[in-house]
């Protein structure tokens, strides 16, 4: 799973620590559709937003640039043939505020019920942080959502793409996390679910990546790293 010990652990967030609340995206889609004043069929808008979200993620992986909500909504407007001038700076700020309110009403859920406790136990023996491409939900909101999930307190480093101006797999976003830990990149294990953004990106940045999936869970990886740290300290 992980060769050798670690001096710090970096984690992806989505599908590594948490998944979306099952009702959030439907309500968020309708919030954005009506907020933009579009008369598009809700199902058509949802499909356009999903495609834009996926395309923006691929653009981030290819360029290392952060593509936030404004970029993603721009892609939606292009797809629907709607003018971009409907998305003013004031409207964007309003939509971000409303999305944050909605997300706090329907916060993400830990990937497994015991993960917050495993994260807290790991943080007692190793510094733990997150390195996250924020996408549609900015870092300011993610802090509040992690807190709502019981996962903020154990984190000593929080690196969000919209705040550092770089997105995974770019080395710069991983370098910000390493700087926060104040140790060598090779001493940091990065855990994530994306083979490109998390595994290739962390490896290129000199970190030690671990890919999590259904067979290798985040809880199992953290428990193994914490146990190794305890053995080393004994």
From TrEMBL:
Its cofactor is Mg(2+). GO terms for molecular function: N-acylneuraminate-9-phosphatase activity. GO terms for biological process: N-acetylneuraminate biosynthetic process. Pfam families: Hydrolase. The keyword Magnesium applies. The keyword Hydrolase applies. Keywords: Hydrolase, Magnesium. It comes from the Bacteria. InterPro entries: HAD-like_hydrolase (IPR051400), HAD-like_sf (IPR036412), HAD-SF_hydro_IA (IPR006439), HAD_sf (IPR023214). This is Putative hydrolase of the HAD superfamily. It comes from Sediminihabitans luteus. The lineage of its organism: Bacteria, Bacillati, Actinomycetota, Actinomycetes, Micrococcales.
């Amino acid at each position: 799973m992980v060769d050798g010990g670690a001096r710090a652990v970096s984690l992806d967030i989505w599908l590594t620590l948490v998944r979306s609340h099952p009702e959030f995206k439907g309500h968020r889609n309708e919030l954005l559709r009506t907020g933009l004043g579009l008369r598009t069929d809700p199902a058509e808008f949802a499909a356009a937003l999903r495609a834009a979200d996926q395309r923006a993620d691929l653009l981030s992986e290819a360029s290392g640039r952060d593509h936030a909500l404004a970029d993603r909504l721009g892609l939606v407007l292009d797809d629907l043939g709607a003018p971009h001038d409907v998305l003013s700076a004031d409207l964007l700020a309003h939509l971000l505020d409303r999305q944050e309110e909605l997300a706090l009403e329907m916060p993400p859920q830990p990937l497994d019920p015991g993960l917050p406790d495993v994260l807290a136990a790991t943080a007692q023996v190793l510094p733990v942080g997150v390195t996250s491409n924020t996408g549609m939900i900015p870092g300011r909101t993610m802090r509040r959502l992690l807190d709502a999930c019981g996962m903020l307190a154990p984190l000593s480093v929080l690196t969000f793409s919209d705040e550092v101006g770089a997105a995974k797999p770019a080395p710069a976003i991983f370098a910000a996390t390493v700087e926060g830990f104040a140790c060598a990149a090779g001493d940091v294990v990065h855990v994530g679910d994306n083979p490109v953004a998390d595994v290739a990106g962390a490896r290129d940045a000199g970190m030690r990546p671990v890919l999590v999936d259904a067979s290798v869970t985040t809880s199992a990886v953290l428990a193994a790293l914490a146990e190794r740290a305890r053995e080393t300290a004994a």
